Amino acid sequence: MSGNREHQTDWFETRGQAGPQVICHVDMDCFYAACERLREPALRGQPLVVGMGYEPGTTNGAVATASYEARAFGVESAEAISAALEKLPRKIDAVDDPSMDVEEAGFYRPVDLDFYDEVASEVKDILHDEAETVREVSIDEAYLDITDRVGWEDDPEMFARRVRERIDDEVGVTASVGVAPTMSAAKVASDHDKPDGLVVVEPGEVRRFLAPLDVEDVHGIGPVTAAELREMGVRTAGDLAAADPSVLGEKFGERGREVHRYARGEDDRTVTPKGEPKSLSRESAFTEPTADSERKRERIRLLAADVAERASREGALYRTIGVKVVVPPFDVNTRARSLPGPVEDADLVEAVALELLGEFADERVRKLGVRVSNLSFADGDQTSLTGFDADGEAEGASDDRSTPEAGDSAGQRSLTDFE
To answer: Quick one: residue 57, left, alpha or beta (phi over 0 = left, psi -120 to 50 = alpha)?
Structure first.
């Protein structure tokens, strides 16, 4: 996009910045599925579902990633594999059952995080080669600050195109890239034309670019908050930009005022590389709130296994295990238990998380999360566990009605701290 840069430049100057940043957001397209296709080229162009907790021949687990071909059959990220199979049967089952149409079936594969990490490291090597400042957000996305390397007076689109082509040529997976003067706008831009997209939003054009988009497309807004905003008559990003920030603050707290600024193209965050994380967590929302105890427990088991595996591969020991439980309308509750010392124990993560979940056995729940925190990356012996600390009971709850959805897709793994 192009146009008058004056407004955005003036806004940056009022924030004490010399001028608009040039920020790229690189987001891999259906990354888990793309990795599986590297390993099995025959899967290219085929409906493909990658399942967390899935084992071949079973109906266990949840959809981690669905290829675009699988999405055409209605398969959605985070839904149960059993539900996905009703929409898209397995090819192998269709071949053996004459009543099924092979053309209406697809392939299922279990998550292989070690392999995906290997592929991701190759992508990240390219990003670090192309930019001095890189913030790795998750296994499949990152922000690049290229302000000092490619200014707006140069050709950031050419830079973004080169990055995308290098990833395709050297690694064999596709990425969508968004370029904008703010982190929030770059994120929206990378999602705007998937897959294999490239969208550049120049200074002065951010608000105009966002205005016609659905309010749920604004960075930081998830489906629950979007539904509440629509009830208030806020249906597009333009509506959000024109809304009264005080009203949004009363309804959603500081996050409401934050997304209002994002919709106006105002975001003074800078791209800063991540150091060692303070915690690792995984969250997943249900399509509809559920009180089904076994569904909740199964989701916690999957989340606990994912978090524990990531901690192991990061070389992280942890002293605290916690859960996050979100009940309608958006009441956020956290519970945690402290351990005598740092450990690495996947079974313990699951056991403690399930025990903490027990407090909410009868609650209707719309979202769950598991976290390990108080991390230690130093080499050393683990603590020998003979029991929890005397004061290691579930810690105080948080009931934050003002915190809206962060809007992160459960389709691709994103391990971040609880807010």
So the answer is: left
Examine residue 285 and state whether it is found in any structural domain, yes or no: yes
Integer angstrom CA distances of residue 412 from 111, 116, 146, 209: 11, 11, 26, 26
Q: Annotated catalytic, 141?
A: yes
Residue 82: give its domain's CATH number: 3.40.1170
d(CA 102, CA 90): 9
One domain for residues 158 and 257:
yes
Which residues touch 9 (CB under 8 Å, ≥6 apart)?
19, 20, 203, 204
Find the CATH number of the domain harbouring 291: 3.30.1490.100
Residue finishing a domain among 57, 75, 105: 105
Shared-domain flag, residues 343 and 408: yes
- Please state the domain count of the chain: 3
pTM of the predicted protein model: 0.66
Q: The domain containing residue 10 runs over which residues? A: 6-30+116-263
Do 329 and 413 lie in one domain? The reply is yes
Q: Which of 36, 69, 79, 141 is catalytic?
A: 141
Q: Are residues 232 and 318 in the same domain?
A: no
Average pLDDT, consecutive stretches of 10 residues, N- to C-terminus, the chain (419 residues) = 46 55 96 94 95 92 95 93 95 77 90 89 90 91 94 92 94 96 97 95 95 96 92 96 94 93 95 80 85 95 92 90 86 89 94 97 92 79 38 31 32 36
Domain boundary among 75, 105, 135: 105
